[in-house]
Structure formats: structure tokens, C-alpha cells
Amino acid sequence: MVYSLAEVRAILAHTDERNLAFVVLGLFAGIRPFELYRLPCADVNLDQGRAMIRRDVSKTEKPRKVELEPNVVAMLLPLTALPIAPEANARKITEAPRKAAGLTGKGNDVSRHTYASMHLTQFNDLERLQANMGHETPKMTLTNSYDWISAEDAVEFWGVTHRI
User: Fold this and answer.
1) Given a cut of 80, is residue 53 above it in pLDDT?
2) Which residue of 14, 26, 36, 131 could cross-link 111, Cys pair, CB 3.0 to 4.6 Å?
């Protein structure tokens, strides 16, 4: 299950600015909510276009580098002074905009699956996607995180540079 482009736009439109980094990094970088909650701002390097998920932050306790696409950097640049997860409960950060957008019944993993599906469709680089997501095998990425989406939606998704 993935978010449609309209749903992504609705989520962004209903996300308040203090939670925007968390939501953007989940939707457009595929970082798990658990990891985002623990990710220090200093480990998101917009100049280099990457986020470092250190061992103590990673769900799997394996460090990885997540490459950030230009649209992610564009959305995060104005937010560099904000914490990634200002709330004590990561679920609340993503639940509020989903609820406001009328998107109930879709869990936190949908952001990660949306990222994987859009990334693979747009860039056709399973090895890079697998590394970004921290999956051990390509099969894990394809089986657990990928749904078919149109090439047009992927192009538009990676062109999103602001929340509204």
C-alpha cells in the first residue's frame, strides 16, 4: 500500500512546520519513524545530500547512508534550525496530518513504502534503494516495500519541493 500523489500533497498541506522535517524525511527519504525520532539534526547533511543513520539510531543496529534527492533538500533547507522530532511520540507527528487529510487506516509504514515505490519507478536503481532503506536483500525491498505506481506519478512526486 502506498500513498497517491494527492494523498502526499494532502499530508504535506496538513503538516505543521515544526513537524515537517519528520514527515518529509519519512515520505521522501524512506527513513523509519523509529529512526527519525532518534535522528540528530547534525546527521542530516543538506550540503552533501545525505542522512547518516548511525548504529544507535538504526532499527537493525546497522549504520547506513541515505541519499537525499534534491526535492528533499529544497524542502528541508528552510527548516535547518528545527529538531526532526519535536514531539515525544513519533506516531502523533504523522497521525495528525493523516487524520486532517482524511487518510485513516494507513499506518506509518505507508510513507516508507511510498518512498520505495516512487524511488524505484523513477530511478530504476534497486541496489541504491536497498542501501538507502537498509534492507539486506533486493528481495526484501521488493517484497516488503514496493507497489506499482505510474512513471508520471513518480516524476511528479520527485518534483515536489514545497508542502502545498
Assistant:
1) yes
2) 26
Cβ atoms 1, 147 nearer than 8 A: yes
Q: Identify which of 20, 42, 34 has the alpha carbon closest to the alpha carbon of residue 86.
A: 20
Residues pairing with 74 in the sheet: none
Among residues 72, 40, 82, the alpha carbon closest in space to that of 57 is found at 40
Residue 89 clears pLDDT 70, i.e. is over it: no
Of the candidates 80, 105, 103, the one whose C-alpha atom is nearest the C-alpha of residue 24 is: 80
What is the residue extent of each domain of the chain?
5-157
Q: What φ, ψ does residue 113 adopt, rounded to 5°? A: -70, -35
Q: Decide: helix, strand or coil at residue 18.
A: helix
Instruction: Give the ranges where the chain is alpha helix by DSSP (H).
Output: 5-13, 20-29, 33-38, 70-76, 90-100, 109-123, 126-133, 138-145, 151-157
Vertex 129: Cα angle to 86 and 31 (nearest 5):
10
Quote the pTM value: 0.90
In CATH terms, is domain 5-157 a member of 1.10.443.10? yes
Quick count: other Cβ atoms within 10 Å of Cβ 69?
17
